[in-house]
Write a structure and sequence with these properties.
Helices cover about 30% and strands about 15% of the residues. The chain is α/β, with parallel strands linked by helices. It has a single domain, classed as Alpha-Beta Barrel (Aconitase, domain 4), CATH 3.20.19.10. Helix 4 links the parallel strand 3 and strand 4. The longest helix is centred in the middle third of the chain and has 13 residues.
Length: about 210
């Protein structure tokens, strides 16, 4: 995907996990009680924590339990009435949990805007396609869990086995991934001298007072 010196994300490839459901919100992705942790280090353990378990705490047949090696998450389709994955609160813990579980890219009918932005900040593409396409992808993955998908950010396609499908990636997200400028913290560090110089001349950072 990228290296320590190259932040460009041109494509992500790997086995997929299909998760169906209406308006799957950030509280389902990572329950609120885990937000008290001061770092994101353990967030991967909490991805879909509650819905992956029965009332007695035992693991159920949730897709994240059945596709433990997946790196591409396919979402939204459920009897033709779903979209808006990642809706609800703006918590960045949700994409952090998915990334630390192993997810490197998402494909779905639609994503909540803030959630998609938080994914972009982690270098995770969120590609969209119509309902019928998402259903077809899910069916292929369910029929062959070892099947690999490739999200091609540059060409806006998803390859499923030998089949290539056109998808849409938000243009600002696409440019950020392709140019390697999605990691704003790393970007600021790379221009540290310029940042410090700008801070030096800003009056409100230098105890500026009007006469």
């Amino acid at each position: 995907m990228s290296t320590a010196t190259d932040k460009t994300v041109t494509a992500v490839t790997g086995p997929a996990v299909p998760v169906r459901g209406n308006d799957i919100d950030t509280d389902q992705i990572v329950p609120a009680r885990f937000l008290k942790e001061v770092t994101f280090d353990n967030m991967g353990e909490y991805a879909f924590y509650d819905v992956r378990r029965d009332d007695d705490g035992s693991l159920n047949d949730h897709p994240f339990n059945r596709y433990p090696n997946a790196t591409i998450l396919v979402v939204n389709e459920n009897f033709g009435c779903n979209q808006n994955f990642g809706c609800g609160s703006s918590r960045e813990h949700a994409p952090q949990a998915l990334m630390r579980w192993g997810i490197k890219g998402l494909v779905g009918e639609s994503f909540a805007e803030i959630f998609a932005g938080n994914c972009q900040a982690l270098g995770i593409p969120t590609a969209t396609a119509d309902r019928e396409t998402i259903e077809w992808i899910m069916e292929q993955v369910e029929a062959d869990p070892a099947l690999e998908l490739t999200i091609d950010v540059e060409n806006e396609t998803v390859t499923v086995g030998d089949d290539g499908i056109d998808v849409t990636i938000n243009e600002s997200q696409r440019e950020a991934l392709l140019q390697g400028i999605w990691d704003t913290t790393a970007l600021m560090k790379s221009y540290l001298d310029e940042v410090e110089e700008t801070a030096r001349v800003l009056p409100y950072l230098n105890e500026f007072t009007e006469c």
